[in-house]
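Z., the sequence and structure:
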Amino acid sequence: MVNKEINSLKDEKNKKGIIPIDIVSEMEESYISYAMSVITTRALPDVRDGLKPVHRRILYSMSEMGLTASARPRKSAAVIGDVLGKYHPHGDTSVYDAMVGMAQDFSYRYPLVIGQGNFGSVDGDPPAAMRYTEAKMSKLSSELLKDLEKNTVNLRPNYDNTRKEPTVLPSTVPNLLLNGTLGIAVGMATNIPPHNLDEVIDACIHLIENNKDTTNEDLTNFIKGPDFPTGGIVYGGKDIHHIYASGRGGIICRGESEIIENKSGTFQIVINSLPYRVNKADLIIKIADLIRNKKIEGIKDLRDESTKETRIVIDLKNGVQPQKIINYIYKHTSLETAFHFNMVALVDGVPQTLSLKSLLEEFISHREDVVKRRTAYDLKKAEEREHILLGLKRALDHIDKVIKIIKSSKDTISAKINLIKEFKFSEPQAIAILEMKLQKLAGLERKNIEIELKEKQSLIEDLKSLLASSGKIFKVITEELIEIKSKYGDERRTKIIKGDLKNISDEDLIPEKESVLVLTADGYVKRTDPIEYKTQKRGGVGVVDLSTKEEDFVNIFLRTSTHSDLLFFTNLGKVYQIKMYDLPEARRATKGKSIMNYLPLVDDEKVTSVLPISEKTKQTGESFILVTKKGTAKKVTASDFRDVRRSGLIAIKLNKGDQLIEVLPTTKGDEIVLATSVGQSIRFKESDIRKMGRTASGVRAVKLTGNDYVVGVSVIEKEYKQSELLTMSANGFGKKTSLNEYKVQKRGGSGIKTAKINLKTGKLIIAKVIKEGSELIAISQKGQVIRVKLESVPSLGRQTQGVKIMKLRANDKIASLTLI
């Protein structure tokens, strides 16, 4: 029933002239038609002349207007109006933008238009309106249009069928490679970089002479890579072979920079070229943003000193490493960009991805066709002239009879008929005879006709010989290419680096320098310049290190390089790893940031030890000594911590109620000294503790009594066995004691006294082996810090309490101590 109604409706519509169409199929067909129109008539260039329709029409229109390189320029509005009215009925802005691009020496490697006025800039400034600017063709454009009048290419009707336009230009140069192109069609795109004219022509000539044996790799011996109008450096020369063979691939492009040292010893970075299609003003703004947001530090001034040549100057502060600054700029701005080849062009109206060889072959094939058609045209013209000259010569040989026939004829038409009838002349010959001037009867003029006839006959012979030999045609193409090279060839602007660009790690971008790490008991961390801590005399009050909460205090204080890996050991026996430069840099009096931002710590987990570790340490046989609060110790190979995952690793298996308090590096032959809160100490060989796995519990290092616990662990290296042990108590009393007073024992004993502990001194909190030339930095629980030369700390016996090292305020105690 429904089908009958539908058929009835269709029949009724057909009677009214309405044709029902399925909307899905109609949309598909319409979209395909639209897509093909965009692909073939707008977005993609022709492989033969390297031009899109709009660019071709602009040049053809300028040629018709007589705007050659030697002519006076005309208003751009006149050119655009001519193009729109005759060939390209689209928006005037799109046509003007296309012409502007052809005039910009930073967009086109070999500009096709000479512009007068404001045609935009590499800073992204827009061109002036078309009514203000003037334009004409460049000399190279004439090479694209050369011999167009000799029927070298096909013509087609324009959009309103009032005139003809060329489907392609004769193009004596491989413009598609010289100036490149960028186009986005429907479902496909093209992106071909510009190249150097000398190199491209050399490759063409090599391909003509060795077509069968030539490979894409052979052609790259001539074409080294892109040659951008803005210069710069291209990395990835090894990939060029693959890119030119496949038509696809990416290369890294960098602007060129140099580092200049001034007389004052400071450095400047000068950027004197940009990657292709990079906006200079946007680049400078991006660098300024990095400086403003403190992503880059050490830049004093940034300015643009560019004239016709690019020159961006960056002044650096004293002590800044310029290479790391420029590396950061490369990584985080468009001064380093990727260019992705997509060598798609129209071949016989069909889009194809082309290799370098196939692209050049298409151009050479086009030139072969152009030369053949040009030769055929010249041959036809020469034969026509020869025919006329033969008629004139014969007429002059019988001039008296010819004059008699003309005189006896009643009019021109009858004279023409009578000449044809009498001498068997062709109609063109008869007309030429009738139009011949009397001066041709002079002997010299007769001779000129004979000379011209011989020249034309010789030319005809040469042209026929040329058409009959493909070898001669290719010779003509080669000679014309050599002539083009001599006229327009120039030096390469872009440098090609064959090796791949080395990946820049974050470490390369961070200046390597000494830095101080400060970690509080509540887990606030920062890194600071050591200069912030000035040396004072023993007994001073010190300076405020950081703004802590009343109940917080500094717990760990160490000095290392910004490039160091930091192993964070926690009270729960786990270890985490980050880089020193990953920590926030701050001034001495600032608080820092929570360590929770950098380490995935759980509840009640706190960092108790931080160990700076180098790559060398990971690779060698160095070991770590891990010591717990209850006197347990174990030795682990450093390589066990080579790859610490972000979630951390187990460093030691702890007994119930125990905590990991210290981790130190040690090598064969070292000794270990431990001190406890009640002033006991023990010294034993590191070999007394065997190496264990990460998850092992360890062995007893010292025997503790009551509520005693371990407060300090030091490694006595072989060369420091005659050194001293620095001890410090909670109330600021400290001393140095010679290690000779500490006998070497077996691990696990209760040890000997190392300091006199009483209410005045408070419990022992720190014991460290010192090295000659070191300085002491002590920090109190309330954030007071003092830096003291160790020479000012007296050397006293084991059983003494020491002297006042730091004058503490009421209810304050020493929290931590470090040696630098």
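DSSP finds 20 helices and 41 strands in the chain. Residues 540-546 have pLDDT under 50 and may be disordered.

Let me know what you think.
H.
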